[in-house]
Amino acid sequence: MADFSTLNDLKVAGKRVLVRVDFNCPIQDGKVSDDTRIRAAMPTLRKLLDNGAALVLMSHLGRPKGKRNLEFSLAPVADRLREVLAKPVTLAPDCIGAETEALSAALQPGQVLLLENLRFHPEEEANEAGFAAQLAKHGEIYVNDAFGTAHRAHASTHGVAKLLPAAAGLLMEAELTHLGELLSAPQSPFV
């Protein structure tokens, strides 16, 4: 596989790092019923925080079909993330807009902001350049740790990566490394 940048290639101290995570978790009765995806992102998030970054996290949840639908709000995810991370997490009212930009601009090292559901905007799945540019305003560096969504050319996975210095998170790095080994030097038998 092609070479790619990783967290080890980044200097994140004092920077706002925009992280694409996959927090598309099942929700039951207003609570996350399986936090596997949140826990899978913890090594990347902790490494960035330990190295002095402020984090702006972005994810989708479900299929709200490009419309704001509170059934698909990331509020339950923010609640569970606070517990797992054991630190405050602010949920932005949206993923773009002046109010959300002010929240991200005010972040200090060690603080975490979770943007509201990316798929409340049809421009996310359309990989609309202007939407990607609005998302990119939230960070100085981009980290993709959402392997499960990386195959989609969406604004948060493809568009933003063209606008900011970009690297793979630890989860993404592990997946790409293992996949690369399987493709370049598979052990026989291999199906």
Describe the structure.
The protein has 191 residues and is an alpha/beta fold. Helices cover 35% and strands 14% of the residues. It has helices spanning 36-50, 75-85, 98-105, 122-125, 129-136, 155-159, 170-184, and strands spanning 16-20, 27-28, 31-32, 54-58, 90-91, 112-114, 141-144, 166-168. The two termini are 18 Å apart.
* Main β sheet profile: 6 strands, parallel
Strand order of the largest sheet: 5-6-4-1-7-8
Distance between the termini: 18 Å
Radius of gyration in whole Å, from Cα? Answer: 16 Å
Q: In terms of per-residue confidence, which ranges show pLDDT below 50 for 5 or more consecutive residues? A: none
State the shape.
Answer: globular
Helix content: 25-40%
**Derived structural class:** alpha/beta
**Could you tell me the mean pLDDT?**
90
Question: What's the number of extended β-strand segments?
Answer: 8
Strand fraction equals 5-15%
Give me the number of helical elements: 7
Output the helix-strand order.
Answer: EEEHEHEHEHHEHEH
Structure described in brief:
By secondary structure, the protein is of the alpha/beta class.
